[in-house]
Design a protein that fits this description.
The chain is of the alpha/beta class and 141 residues long. The protein has seven helices and seven strands. The chain starts with a helix and ends with a helix. Keywords: CBS domain. Pfam families: CBS.
């Protein structure tokens, strides 16, 4: 059985909720990623959300806000989604499809150990699985 841990990329990095969005953008650039899980201030084992490069552009910059003054925690909304490292690929796909998300943090023993992105799905799954995932995540309905 292929698990979330088998298809994730390792080295996911947290950003504390109190850090500013300009710092988040720098971290994304430095780590060559497009999303960061946001941790409760001082608690790297408690995820309060996830922010993406698109969130920074749409919810901050395009709205005329200053990314050096807006915090990562201010951009988080909704319930953070994640998957256990031992979950099988079908559970990964279901979680991502049902919540229409493109990136999914992977947790083991309550600790962040990696992230699953679209690229990881494309590398590790069949064309049919990726096509089915994309249809459900990107459809307008």
């Amino acid at each position: 059985m292929t698990t979330a841990k088998d298809i994730m990329h390792t080295g996911a990095h947290w950003i504390p909720a109190h850090e500013t969005l300009d710092r988040a953008a720098q971290m994304m650039r430095d780590h060559k990623v497009g999303a960061l899980p946001v941790s409760a201030n001082g608690e790297q084992d408690r995820m309060v959300g996830i922010i993406t490069d698109r969130d920074i552009v749409i919810k901050c910059v395009a709205s005329g806000r200053d990314p050096s003054k807006v915090t990562a925690g201010e951009l988080c909304d909704g319930t953070p989604r994640w998957i256990d490292a031992t979950a099988d690929v079908d559970a990964v796909l279901e979680e991502m499809q049902s919540h229409r998300i493109r990136r999914l943090p992977v947790v083991e023993n309550k600790k962040l150990i990696g992230m699953i992105s679209e690229a990881d799905l494309a590398l590790h799954l069949s064309d049919e699985q990726v096509a089915g995932w994309a249809e459900k995540v990107y459809s307008r309905s």
